[in-house]
Amino acid sequence: MQPGQVCIDTPHATTHIVHTCIHVHTALASVPDAIRHCQQLLTLDLSINPLGSLCEGVTELRQLRKLILNDTQLEELPPNIGK
User: Fold this and answer.
1) Could you tell me which of 1, 10, 50, 47 has the C-alpha nearest to residue 27?
2) What is the CATH number of the domain that holds 56?
3) Is the pLDDT assigned to residue 78 strictly greater than 80?
4) Which site in 5, 18, 32, 68 is 20 to 30 Å from 50, CA atoms measured?
5) Quick one: three-class SS letters along 46-69?
6) Which of 31, 30, 35, 32 is CA-nearest to residue 9?
7) How confident is the model at residue 23, as a pLDDT?
């Protein structure tokens, strides 16, 4: 997957499992709540984006092992992240 590509995996797309999502320097202001459907996602890199907040969908990524948020405008994380 190349930087800037959309990586939302829906329950209907059973033949494609996304393990890494790289969205570096794409002017991404928010993460779609549909990210919650990427249940096999291991790495999410949202570096160098003007993110104001992370959606609750990120907290439902139970397999996520690496969340990279370098150079974003985030001031806080969702309360349920990492649980």
Assistant:
1) 50
2) 3.80.10.10
3) yes
4) 18
5) CCCCCCCCCCHHHHHCCCCCEEEC
6) 35
7) 73
